[in-house]
Amino acid sequence: MTKTYKIAAIPGDGIGKEVLPEGLRVLEAVSRRFGIQLEFTHIDWASCDYYQKTGQMMPDDWRAQLQPMDAIYFGAVGWPASVPDHVSLWGSLLKFRREFDQYINLRPVRLFEGVPCPLAGRQPGDIDYLVVRENTEGEYTNLGGVMYGGTDREIVIQESVYSRFGADRVLKYAFELAQQRDRRHLTVATKSNGIAIAMPWWDSRADAVGQAYPSVTVDKQHIDILTARFVLQPGRFDVVVASNLFGDILSDLGPATTGTIGLAPSANLNPERSFPSLFEPVHGSAPDIYGRNIANPVAMIWSGAMMLQFLGHEDAHDAILQAIERTLIEGPRTPDLGGTASTTDMGRAIAERI
Ligand code: ATP
Ligand code: MG
Q1: Ligand 1 atom nearest 78 alpha carbon
Q2: What are phi and psi of 254, to 5 degrees?
Q3: PROSITE patterns given for it (predicted)?
Q4: ipTM for the assembly
Q5: In the chain, what are the domain boundaries?
Q6: H or E segment and range at residue 325
Q7: 205-248: per-residue pLDDT in tens?
Q8: How far apart are CA 68 and CA 112, in angstroms?
Q9: Ligand 1 in contact with 296 (CB < 6 A)?
């Protein structure tokens, strides 16, 4: 008997509500072609509309509703005109990441044919790497405080926290990923010359974990020069692993070098599958373009491909990527790609090519 995957489909806010249906259209096409059973549960919470009706972003039993799912397919959250961003974000997406221990944030960075690149002279193939961001610890903590507040002697302390468990598991994931790729190269983001306790320790954990992966070449780079190389020498990179803050920066910079934000997908993974993983476009709810049916659906669709890949369906992933590639070359294209097509036109074209 083939397995039926349970998928929570959560549009959220703004263009999340426009791009998610295109993602579902493509998932339905690819699941028909490859005989994959997907069972969707459509969820209207984790949205600012729900907040306005109920005073909270999600129902109290959100965990119980989502825990049985194999994956969460998520549009975008945030509608700052009615709900402050910290309320909507902390009340939904960040809860998923933390409470479902989605400790890997994975973002592919790739330049496609037919998409204008903001870096001069780059061809498709020159930019093709994966950023692996640690998603649960490091620089993002609530530890610290202000001393002598309001006086001339005011001091602020903000702690970073790294655990051997937390660092080793993200490094291991990155090494495994690098080992599966053709180039088998891992760049470890560091800053051991300036952050003199945590980063030398992070480097030593990379050395320790790397012992088990002799076929992977490792290159430790300070975050400052690393960001410069994302722009100047993107061809150097294959898999890049970074702490929470450094990874946050790299995983926005990388996609920005490959054209429009409307293409960039992401996965928030719990690789052990103790909890559902979440797949979402990098972009937000884009209130400035919502309601016009002009958002680029590719980031959402590609995130769906990553979801199927995570569920073990590499062939379905590849078929979606091929359909995206052809559509970026032959059209139709949304306005952010220089075209005049609607979100729906582009989603339909990709689904038809599957
Ligand atoms: P965040 O949700 O991370 O806070 P934000 O709200 O600042 O992000 P986005 O919602 O991602 O930003 O929008 C940033 C810009 O990119 C906006 O001008 C938006 O219109 C544009 N944009 C975002 N997503 C898309 C898309 N899928 N297609 C076309 N344009 C997009
Ligand atoms: Mg936003």
Answers
A1: 2
A2: -55, -60
A3: IDH_IMDH
A4: 0.95
A5: 1-104+264-354, 128-257
A6: helix 314-330
A7: 999 999 999 999 999 999 999 999 999 999 999 999 999 999 99
A8: 36
A9: yes
